[in-house]
Amino acid sequence: MKVSIVTISYNQANFLEQAILSVINQDYHDIEYIIVDPGSTDNSSEIIEQYREQVDKIITEPDTGPAEGLNNGFAHATGDIYSFVNSDDYLLPGAIRAIVSAFQARPFKDVLSGNALIVDRAGTTLKKFYSRKFSAQRAVYGAATLPQQATFFRAQCFRKSGGFNPSNHIAWDGEFWIDMALCGCRFGRIKTFLAAFRLHQESITYTKHISLEHYRYLESMFRKVQGRDSTFIDNVIRVSMKGLEYLENPLMLADRLLHGREIKTGIFQKS
Question: For residue 78, what are the contacts with CB-CB under 8 A and spacing of at least 6?
Fold first, then answer.
């Protein structure tokens, strides 16, 4: 089973080499690795060039943002299973072998998510990120979050969904999960920790939860799934489903009770 991995890179030279090494040092033999860098102005291109012999495809054509960059990358993919690892995140050792075994054991699943470590700029673990039971309905009520870097999907599911929405510059991965669910792709989870999700000053995750644009994105996803605008009753349902999410994930609940809701690193924090 061949696994195609795309890394989108843009001015993340401080983290890029770790991302690349986390892929090429996996203990699984059949990996196709594609790097997309539409024109970094730091030394990212020099880092990528160092590993040219171990990368299957390097794409340098301009794009309109991460979603289009991912589409450009996957347009060259030939694997059975797809995944994308951002240039500031990284895979954990043995991740690909573990996910391939999981897909082989679950031929009826189209999308499988493992867990992830949330790390800071230096790579110090801050918290654990547990994948949740996913459906489009759960997602628009805020009760189904997947760690993107620990989520893998079958190639035919990517094609069936139409790929990433190039106009989405806030949560292109979140909309992609929803689109796959809406077109009938079947989601599942494994308990293995597969990747590390890095929070740092330049990360969009730090600011998107308070932006007006992100609020508009959430409302647009609700309309896409439910076919209507949200109401006060939906806010009540959202709270109830969030409670159900914690009850269904006792490890996540224990982590919340132990560490609290907020992740703080220096002057930055994410709720």
Answer: 2, 4, 32
